[in-house]
Design a protein that fits this description.
about 280 residues, 5-stranded mixed β-sheet, binds adenosine-5'-diphosphate, binds the ligand CC(C)(COP(=O)(O)O)[C@@H](O)C(=O)NCCC(=O)O, binds potassium ion
């Protein structure tokens, strides 16, 4: 039986979309993604009288039967105050919008016990690294294949080693389409079959260039990580994790076999903060 008092929401605001999790105490019940919500919807959340109404407001229409099925027990129950919403955002304008939520808990870098962080380190990177390290151990390197692709590592002392930031898969494709005179906007590849390396048409040349250099770059960072920490662990998250992992598996199976593929790393980090 679900205890409604223990319900809390986690919201990670990325540069492409919102990532949500519904927790019951330490237990992650389920997760979903949405687009950014209109300001009018956000400001109405305070008026929701039940969790059912709240979830319906923040859940995309086409997925509503799913939330209703999974949350039958919770949905029946009423509550009179908004559940805590732990927020980790790397989009300041979005952070501002969510300040109107009555029980908002904005997570800041100083709440994460990771050592040696620099002031402008992305909160998503710090949380994902903390969540991964606390779950699987340190040293840990997190690869986030999101809007930006990031590498973020910490050593055995839970101290930030550092990392790197580059445009993610979608951004690389979009930039070529938008900032050039005659390159098309190609589809994001969605199958694990590798593009032709030496392509004889423009879309395939773009796909080849982006995919092979991304995979080569990821491999290079992983090898550099293992030079520093031969026993170091590696986890990969983000919207493009599966695609990139599948390519890595085809090209470098020995490397891929060491990767932890886990969508919810940031939520594990948020749970550490919320429960402490
Ligand atoms: N519904 C979606 N909206 C946006 N990006 C998506 C979606 N589904 C998959 N993606 C892929 O995920 C990447 C964004 O990753 P994600 O982790 O969602 O980003 P962020 O956390 O930065 O918002 C994009 O490059 C895109 O290829
Ligand atoms: C690097 C990021 C843009 C990644 O954002 P995302 O792709 O997850 O939306 C974000 O973590 C950020 O704004 N970081 C601040 C700079 C830094 O981490 O050094
Ligand atoms: K992210």
């Amino acid at each position: 039986m679900c205890n409604i008092k223990k319900i809390w929401l986690a919201l990670e605001i990325g540069n492409s979309q919102l990532h949500w999790a519904l927790f019951n105490g330490e237990i992650l019940d389920f997760t979903w993604d949405t687009e950014y919500l209109p300001e009018s919807v956000i400001s109405q959340l305070a008026q929701c009288q039940t969790l059912n109404n709240l979830l319906l407001a923040i859940f995309p229409l086409h997925q509503r039967t799913e939330v209703q099925r999974e949350q039958k027990e919770i949905l029946a129950e009423a509550f009179f105050s908004s559940p805590p919403l732990f927020l980790a955002s790397v989009v300041p304008s979005q952070t501002t919008l969510w300040q109107t939520y009555p029980n908002i808990r904005v997570i800041t870098l100083d709440q994460i016990p990771l050592r040696g962080v620099y002031p402008t380190l992305g909160i998503d990177r710090a949380l994902a690294l903390w969540g991964a390290g606390k779950t699987w151990g340190f040293p840990m390197l997190v690869i986030d294949a999101g809007t930006a692709l990031t590498f973020t590592g910490a050593d055995d002392n839970q101290c930030l080693v550092g990392g790197a930031i580059l445009p993610g898969l979608g951004l690389q494709i979009a930039t070529l389409g938008q900032k050039t005179g005659q390159l098309p906007l190609v589809e994001t590849p969605n199958s694990a079959s590798l593009p032709t390396r030496f392509a004889l048409n423009t879309p395939e040349a773009i796909q080849s260039g982006i995919i092979y250099t991304l995979i080569a770059g990821i491999k290079d960072f992983i090898e550099a990580w293992w030079c520093l920490f031969p026993e170091g662990k590696i986890a990969i998250k983000g919207g493009d994790r599966t695609l990139l992992f599948n390519y890595l598996q085809t090209l470098y199976p020995a490397i891929a076999s060491h990767l932890i593929v886990e969508l919810n790393l940031t939520f594990w980090g948020m749970r550490e903060i919320a429960m402490s």
